[in-house]
Write a structure and sequence with these properties.
Elements (H helix, E strand, L loop, with lengths): L3 E5 L3 H14 L4 E6 L2 H11 L3 E5 L1 E2 L2 E2 H8 L5 E6 L4 H8 L3 E4 L4 H16 L6 H8 L8 E6 L2 E6 L3 E7 L2 E6 L4 E4 L3 H7 L5 E5 L2 E4 L3 E5 L5 E4 L4 E3 L5 H9 L2
Parallel strand pairs: 1-2, 1-3, 3-6, 6-7
Antiparallel strand pairs: 4-5, 8-9, 10-11, 10-14, 11-12, 13-14, 15-16, 16-17
Length: 249
Amino acid sequence: MKLTAVIVDDEEQQRKILSGMLARRHPDIELRGMADDVPSGIALIKQHSPDILFLDIELKDRTGFDLLRALGDKRPHVIFTTAHVSYAVKAIRFSALDYLLKPIDPAELDEAITKAETVVRETERPVQMDMLLKNIDRSTGDRIIALPVSDGLEMVHVNEIVLCESDSNYTTLHTRDGKRLVISRTLKEFEDLLLGDHFQRIHNSYLVNINHIKKYIRGDGGEVVVSNDMTIPVARRKKQELLDSLDKL
């Protein structure tokens, strides 16, 4: 099956570079067209229904996420392209989706296309994009994030997360109501995702919502008691940073 693709990027030079790489390295992919902003991108996708969408994150005064929301459930497989490692890229990583940093590395392009060929042939729609669009929205105070669980996605209010505990390549989320969610993401990935939501890394194994800290117990590094009554150690090197944050509450 021959795959089709479109490119949506607001930089003409980047569109030329990527289209040239596709022509040379992946001539079996039919490039149906290119667009430079959200409205023309939506029109192009609706006209051609491509299998793969190469999508720039920043599109003039809007974003690639605006385009994806407008498409609803009828979205192609997306490979993001960007020149910057931003919060959006961290959310894309968390959602296990593909992105290419500009200037695009040919080997990374090949890898992303190999994955796309597999995903496009699957009949079931992946949930990762739904997760990303939920997690990228930082506009509300009581933010809800989507977490990958065995049978789909678990929606969790960020304010209800007391702490995140590292367990190798997994992280256990402890919530205010005593629930424990084991998620196949590293603590560093959660740290990136929850940056700016009152979460602080107080120990190599713990990321804590400082709004849920009930008590600080003095010591070499000290300990904190959180709202679900767990007692968590504080690394000595993190002690002053934590105390400064608590002073601001």
